[in-house]
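Exercise 3.2. Students should predict the tertiary structure of the chain below and write it as structure tokens, then compare their answer with the key that follows.

Predict this chain's 3D structure.
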Amino acid sequence: MRLLAILIALLIAAPAHADSRDEAKREFAAGQTADKAKDWTNAIDHYLRAYELMPHPFALYNIAVDYQELGKLREAAHYFEQYVAIPDSTDRDRVAKLIGELKARPARIGITTDPAGARVTIDGQVVGQTPFTAKLKGGTHTIVVDRDSRREERTITVEFAEPQDVKFAIGATGTLFVDGTPVGAKVTIDGTVAGEMPVQVPLEVGEHRVQIVMDGYSPIETTARVTAGMVTRIQPTLTAGLGGLGDGSPGTFKLNYLLGFGAGADVRGNGLVYDFEVGLSGKQYEIAMVIGKFAALTSVEFQVRWAMLPGRFSPILGGGYAHLGGGDSGAGYEAFAGLRYELMSTDKLGVTVLGMLTARYNAVSVVDPMTEAPPTGIFPLAFRLQVSYR
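Answer key:
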């Protein structure tokens, strides 16, 4: 029976791998067609799908170029960096230099004060009065505004040609101190980038909207009320990984709702298996509660699964805890391995087939749970159809 299981796995794997490669080629070609039509957004979607199916540095390079065409230079640099990180990528030195050039691109900076009419000094040179707009080269710049003996100073960083509006309150002011975790998260106040935590910003009296973001963490948005002549301190804590259930925002771990139906048999001839599962999936992980029948016994299982590869076809590994029959006599641990193949994937729905061979330890015989038989193992081979809602 073990030989049969291996044979089944090989038969599934070969055509699935070929299908993934063919579909990746079709997606890549569709991206090239969209590029010719200057439909950069659609081209990016096709290249991302091609890379998911069959990772290749050319897809990353084309994604970066299309983001550059869209004027989204930070995103372009992100994919160029991934491209350069692959050892067999060509033109790595040229692309690394291009990343630096994108980061140094100049950007429009608007400077306003309340009240208006303040003198503006940038990097030690007087340039005009507020409201003032200038185009500054990439890098760090120091902006000073002064009016009626009141003076405020702020350092900004210009990157990737991203425009900024810098607002100063030089009337009745207080100070907002944003001091949370993780250090280095970007802080935006009233739509203006204030810096990275920890950051202290002079603001006009009143309520202000504060946003904190960092790659790999769920963003936070809150409000803070600033009092005249006082320091208002907030200490936000960003959550890593599982931020934003199902929102799909950058840096978050998007969760999908999962339903499944399975059927199979024990390879040692102890009976049939059929079950129903509910759970959650995200990235390459799944957790599920499985309820069904094994032989004449009711089966309740908690399973955790890991897909080893991010593409459409992947081996899977996992483990869990199972209970068979009544009382505590049928409890035990289980481990399993198998193959996963994604039949369909859209923005809202996914359909997947799993084939798994499980090794389960139970405290009683699987044939008659009322006997006091010595510990025994069972080995169900089952196939499961899963539907995920995103």
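Discussion points: Residues 1-14, 242-252, 365-375 have pLDDT under 50 and may be disordered. Residues 208 and 224 are 5 Å apart (CA to CA).
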